[in-house]
Amino acid sequence: MHMKRLNVKTDGTAITTIKQLIMIIAIACITLPYIVMIWSDNNVAPDFHQFLTNIFFIGLYLLLGFAVLMILLSRYSPIKVLAIRKQLIIFTRKFLESKDDGALKLSVTWKYCLKGKILIIKLYPNGLVKDTALVGKKLSERLGEKLLDYEELDGEVHYVFGKLPDRYDGIAVMSENMPSQEDDIKIVAYNNPIPIYDDIFWNIASEAIHILLIAPSGAGKTMFLSYLIGMLLKRKHLVYVVDAKNSAFGRFCRHVGLPVATNVVEVIQMLNALMEEMQDIYTTHFANGEASVDTDFSTLPIKGHFLIFDEVLSVLASADKKEKAEIEYLLGQLALLGRAAGFGIVVSAQKLNATDLSKNITEQCQTRIILGRIVSDETFHQATGMYKKDLGHAYRGGVGKGYAVTPLSGIKYIETPLMPHNVRDYMVLMKELRDRGTPYGEGR
Ligand SMILES: Nc1ncnc2c1ncn2[C@@H]1O[C@H](COP(=O)(O)OP(=O)(O)OP(=O)(O)O)[C@@H](O)[C@H]1O
Ligand SMILES: [Mg+2]
Q: pLDDT digit string (tens) for 407-422?
């Protein structure tokens, strides 16, 4: 990727003077012949007349050439990289600090390039910029482009501008390349990352296997979980569901043929059963001396076990002290020991205070997602480990819209895959996906 470099070395007054000088020369060349003709009463030698005509045209071409050059180099330039160049120059002079360095100015350095509709700008602040997130915001206003990505590195800052990518169509993603019933788990791309938005994935065969999903009521938790369930079934994994609110979501999952727990007792039973399964897998695949050091879920052809725990806090709220401790202990163990054996947990909650859910669980969740328009700074920080002001743009949450943090991508804006409003529209598809993965009723 070739990037253009831009050093803004002057405050622009020298350049303005040169421009004015060229203009004066051009206008002088154009007007001088007229003045001479009037002054000499149209009575000059033919040679001199020719000379005056030449001067006139030199002035005219100079003016035209100069005008074209000015347009090309201006922020209205039809050549986009040149327009960006000018915008960066104006931006530097208007909004960034610079220091005198002899006759020149010491200021920042930019590098920029256009990749299709994406504009990548790198800033080398030279110690002159304090708040690079704020610079991102202002630059975005200046350029009239959305800031898609912002990353602060050692000595340089990356900004990516452009249009937001479209949301995925959840049903289309679920139904493309359906595995057949006969396809062995080894053949199915069973541990391929699950697409969420643009280049953000849920990497189920990595340390990012556990998800923490935070969103206020109505912001799209359950819809997103339904999508994830479909994608897990497509990869032939076993899915277990907790629907603490005993809502339509739980009924839907039961219809699809998944085990669903709705109250504290059932949740504890389910967690214990999963723990036993996990211990079985450890005994068969890990303790027999054959397994190499790097043996784990991503190299073994074993099905993953995924616990989709919607509204974890409402379960904990209705549990007594002992039950709460037990649920937290079991969830914590699953999160801590589950990864290598392919046991993943997806935990959703409306908000998260430090005391709500044991750190043993939350700290294991390396895929963090937050959705919703109104999310407090504290909740945002609890969920992502970042502050809204560090985003480099105004917070952009909404229904099905928010941010994901993964070990690979850092924090990125996301929109969850679009799902039909009526579950009946994808019930058949979900059932089919489930039946292909677990045709004989195993895992029920
Ligand atoms: N991915 C999506 N595709 C289409 N519509 C969505 C999506 N996510 C959310 N919605 C819309 O928002 C509504 C609420 O979403 P959802 O039920 O998933 O929210 P929730 O966070 O689970 O809320 P609650 O606290 O009520 O359980 C949905 O009924 C739907 O209209
Ligand atoms: Mg819900």
A: 988 899 999 999 998 8
Confidence of residue 444 (pLDDT cuts 50, 70, 90): very low
Residues 309 and 204 in one domain: yes
Q: What share of the chain is helix, strand, coil (3-state, %, to 5)?
A: 45, 20, 35
Instruction: Go through 124-147 and write b for each residue having 16 or more CB atoms within 10 A of its CB, e for each that does not.
Output: bbeeebeebbebbbebbeebebeb
- At 443, the pLDDT band (50, 70, 90 cuts) reads very low
Asked if residue 233 and residue 379 are part of one domain, the reply reads yes
Q: Which two tokens stand for residue 236?
A: 């032939």
Q: At which of 130, 162, 194 does a domain end? A: 162
The verdict on 156 and 213 lying in the same domain is no
Residue 384's CATH number: 3.40.50.300
Q: Alpha-carbon distance 283 to 348, whole Å?
A: 30
Residue 215 beta carbon below 6 angstroms from any ligand 1 atom = yes
Mutate which of 168, 222, 252, 314 for ligand 1? The one with the most ligand atoms within 8 Å of its CB, which is: 222
- 247 C-alpha vs ligand 1 centroid, how far in Å? 13
Question: CB neighbours (10 Å) of residue 286?
Answer: 15
Calculate how far, in angstroms, residue 400's C-alpha sits from the geometric centre of ligand 1.
7
Structural domain total, the chain? 2
| Owner of token pair 């920029």 | 112
> 400 CB less than 6 Å from ligand 1?
yes
220 lines ligand 1 (CB under 6 A): yes
Is residue 154 located within the same domain as residue 201? Answer: no
For residue 42, pLDDT over 90 is answered with no
Residues with C-beta atoms within 5 A of ion ligand 2 = 221-222
Ligand 1, atom 9, residue with closest C-alpha: 220
Are 122 and 251 in the same domain? no
Q: Which of 364, 388, 366 has the alpha carbon at shortest distance from 378?
A: 388
pLDDT tens per residue, range 275-323? 999 998 888 877 665 555 566 777 777 889 999 999 999 999 899 999 9
CA of 220 from ligand 2 middle (Å) equals 7
- Which residue's CA is the nearest one to ligand 1's atom 10? 220
Residues 340 and 418 in one domain: yes
Q: Give tens-digit pLDDT for 131-158.
A: 898 999 999 999 999 998 888 888 899 9
Ligand 1 atom 8, closest CA: 220
Query: How close is the Cα of 416 to the center of ligand 2, in Å?
Result: 14
State the residue range of the domain holding 129.
4-162
| Length of the chain, in residues | 444
